[in-house]
């Protein structure tokens, strides 16, 4: 690869040109199967598209370059990518995961993964002393980190946690969906695996579901991850891979715009009379701000939460009165989304009942602030406070 900066890598998708047609954007490869050579070999290296597909090559190469990895694989969803990491372990293995993390993966870990025989322990991943005490050398095979973590945006020190995990003989995997490769490269900080829900910022347009895993090195665990994708079949569709590559071309512009707006929005509502608290790693008083400053370059992400004065009813009323902010789950698209997170996560959620999760898009930040101001005022009237 040429010595290009990440912005150039994404803008030109590594500068790929089709050798046959000179096209600068790729065709969509849809074949499910590949021709065998007359002497019964497969010299092309391709056999069947559940295992691999030329439609994945460029998006995998771009993400791999951004993450500085050995290899990247696309999956059918963020969940397919994340669960492949755990499915490549053995029953009886011990894993550590954060108490605050993407709720659907936490649910899967505590139900399916546990019933399959993994010993899953949820810990306060932001506290290295807690992580150290929970690690069982020779028995703990994997430590899972999400930073900043849904929906409180808890920050975990990747480099410190990697050292602890490695000293105990465990791999460190990082869900870097919220930070994106624009802000953080977990492998350079010592992680062994990086996962993205590519559904979010990598694609960036709320029009596909996809996931990625990048490994720092080829090893036995990674070979099993490859088999999980090929055999269980959590494989992305060709059109989705093509859309993902298109979305990736504007990754840096979108993420930087979202970060700048999230920072301004957070500062505006910090200390607001109708807001109990703003949870955002970019605020100097936020716990973990100093770690985030070290491991997130150029911004603190586009995700934040508002705790609204007046409790659950007030929070739901605010979401009911926004117009520009759209009431929907998910994150990382061009449009700003608002969600009452406790309603989504249900029993056992770490989200307080007054919390609204916000995904800042790329609209004008003044419009986003004005819409939230109006909704906060309207909610006061609606709940007669
Ligand atoms: C941080 C994080 N990780 C993983 C996922 C799962 O991704 P997907 O919905 O593509 O399966 C999500 C989805 O919301 C997420 O926010």
How do the helices and strands line up, and which of them pair or pack?
Layout (H helix, E strand, L loop, with lengths): L5 H6 L42 H14 L3 E5 L2 H10 L6 E5 L4 H13 L3 E5 L4 H7 L5 E7 L11 H10 L3 E5 L4 H4 L9 E5 L13 E5 L4 H13 L5 H11 L2 H19 L5 E5 L9 H7 L7 E6 L2 H11 L4 E2 L9 E4 H5 L9 E5 L5 H18 L3
Helix pairs in contact: 2-9, 3-4, 3-8, 12-14
This protein binds pyridoxal-5'-phosphate.
Counting DSSP H or I runs of 4 or more residues, the number of helices is 14
**Shape call:** globular
Oligomer status: single chain
SSE order, one letter for each helix or strand: HHEHEHEHEHEHEEHHHEHEHEEHEH
- The low-confidence runs, each spanning 5 or more residues with pLDDT under 50, are none
Adjacency order of strands in the biggest sheet: 1-7-6-5-4-2-3
Which kinds of small molecule does this entry bind, naming each only once? pyridoxal-5'-phosphate
**Radius of gyration from the CA trace?**
21 Å
Largest sheet: 7 strands, mixed
Strand element count: 12
Helical residue percent? 25-40%
What is the average per-residue confidence, as pLDDT, rounded to a whole number? Answer: 97
| Percent strand | 15-25%
Helix and strand composition category:
alpha/beta
Kindly, what is the distance between the CA atoms of the first and last residues, rounded to a whole number of angstroms? 60 Å
């Amino acid at each position: 690869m040429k010595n290009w900066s990440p912005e150039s890598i994404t803008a030109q998708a590594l500068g790929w040109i089709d050798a046959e047609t000179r096209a600068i954007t790729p065709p969509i490869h849809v074949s499910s199967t590949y021709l065998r050579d007359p002497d019964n070999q497969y010299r092309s290296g391709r056999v069947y598209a559940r295992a691999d597909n030329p439609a994945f090559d460029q998006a995998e190469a771009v993400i791999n370059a951004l993450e500085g990895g050995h290899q990247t694989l696309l999956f059918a969803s963020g969940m397919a990518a994340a669960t492949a990491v755990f499915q490549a372990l053995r029953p009886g293995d011990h894993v550590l995961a954060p108490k605050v993390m993407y709720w659907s993966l936490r649910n899967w870990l505590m139900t399916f993964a546990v019933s399959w025989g993994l010993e899953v322990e949820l810990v306060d991943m932001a506290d290295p002393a807690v992580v150290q005490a929970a690690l069982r050398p020779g028995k703990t095979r994997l430590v899972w980190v999400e930073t900043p973590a849904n929906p409180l945006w808890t920050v975990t020190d990747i480099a410190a946690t990697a050292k602890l995990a490695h000293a105990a003989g465990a791999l460190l995997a990082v869900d870097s969906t919220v930070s994106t490769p624009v802000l953080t490269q977990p492998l350079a900080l010592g992680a062994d695996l990086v996962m993205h829900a590519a559904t979010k910022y990598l694609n960036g347009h709320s029009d596909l579901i996809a996931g990625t895993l990048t490994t720092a090195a080829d090893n036995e665990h990674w070979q099993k991850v490859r088999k999980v994708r090929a055999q269980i079949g959590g494989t992305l569709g060709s059109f989705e891979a093509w859309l993902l590559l298109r979305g990736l071309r504007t990754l840096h512009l979108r993420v930087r715009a979202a970060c700048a707006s999230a920072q301004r929005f957070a500062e505006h509502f910090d200390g607001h009379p109708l807001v109990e608290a703003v949870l955002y790693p970019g605020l100097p008083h936020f716990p973990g701000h100093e770690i985030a400053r070290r491991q997130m370059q150029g911004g603190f992400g586009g995700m934040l939460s508002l705790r609204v004065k007046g409790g659950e009813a007030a929070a739901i009323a605010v979401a009911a009165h926004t117009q520009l902010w759209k009431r929907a789950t998910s994150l990382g698209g061009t449009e700003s989304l608002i969600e009452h997170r406790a309603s989504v996560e249900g029993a056992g959620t770490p989200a307080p009942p007054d919390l609204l999760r916000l995904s800042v898009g790329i609209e004008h930040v003044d419009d986003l602030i004005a819409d939230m101001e109006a909704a906060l005022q309207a909610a006061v009237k609606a709940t007669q406070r």
